[in-house]
Design brief:
Shape: globular
Structural class: mainly alpha
Number of strands: 0
Mean pLDDT: 95
Low-confidence stretches: none
Bound molecules: protoporphyrin IX containing FE
Helix content: over 70%
């Protein structure tokens, strides 16, 4: 039985690559003018130097933007989001997250996301949207003044952009850990299929 439609699988893996390139090149750009009292190790960054990192960042940005738009349009129009992420209960999300932390959360039926997953996926989608919007303010502060004002102008947008990145990195670490704990979810995200009794 197919649990992950082809569009979701393709956009998921393109998104993972784009995020990786954006985060690593973003760390290099951050190092050129750090917002806080630390920098990222150069070996963990992409682009080699500021101009190279900016090129990677912009290239990956278009990939993330076009691919993300495709995923959002499919998710909304096909009913995928409604079926997989809703109904959503914050109380159930809290309960499932606490169970997951105690390694007590069951994920037997891979065709249904538990409430902790629903919260994490909806949350990371919102973070990526905010990341792109704050990135737009940093790139074109004059053209997107209205959004910039909501974020506290250029300086505020830098903080929003940084904390969205930090939230996404945290999500990815936990997400990959969860996949490692329930490894049969991984092939299913490639082939889309599970056996009926798995
Ligand atoms: C880098 C950023 C990543 C983001 C933003 C992300 C986000 C997501 C989202 C939103 C979903 C739900 C998809 C849907 O049904 O519409 C998902 C599912 C999934 N992701 Fe990721 N992902 C990322 C990276 C990864 C990586 C690196 C792996 C592999 C280790 C991975 C493995 C999976 C698997 C196996 C599922 C299905 C989970 C299940 O069936 O329980 N993801 N991811």
């Amino acid at each position: 039985m197919t649990i992950h439609p082809l569009v979701v699988r393709v956009t998921h893996w393109i998104n993972a690559l784009a995020i990786l390139a954006m985060v690593l090149s973003g760390w290099r750009i951050y190092n050129a003018d750090p917002l806080f009292g630390f920098t990222f190790p150069d070996d963990w960054t992409l682009g080699g130097w500021l101009a190279g990192a900016l090129q990677w960042h912009f290239a990956a940005m278009w990939l993330l933007f076009a691919n993300g738009l495709g995923y959002l349009a499919y998710g909304i129009l096909s009913g995928h989001f409604r079926r997989k992420f809703f109904p959503f209960s914050p109380r159930a999300a809290l309960r499932d997250t606490l169970d997951a932390l105690r390694l007590r959360l069951k994920h037997d039926d891979l065709s249904i996301y538990n409430a902790a997953q629903r919260a994490a996926y909806l949350g990371v989608i919102a973070l990526i949207v905010l990341l792109v919007l704050s990135g737009l303010v940093l790139w074109q502060p004059v053209q997107v003044q209205a959004i910039g004002m909501l974020m506290g102008d250029y300086e505020g947008a830098r903080y929003v952009h940084f904390f969205c990145m930090a939230g996404i990195v945290l999500f990815v670490l936990v997400h990959v850990l969860m996949v490692a704990l329930v490894p049969r979810t991984f092939p299913a995200m490639i082939t889309g299929k599970i056996r009926r009794n798995s």
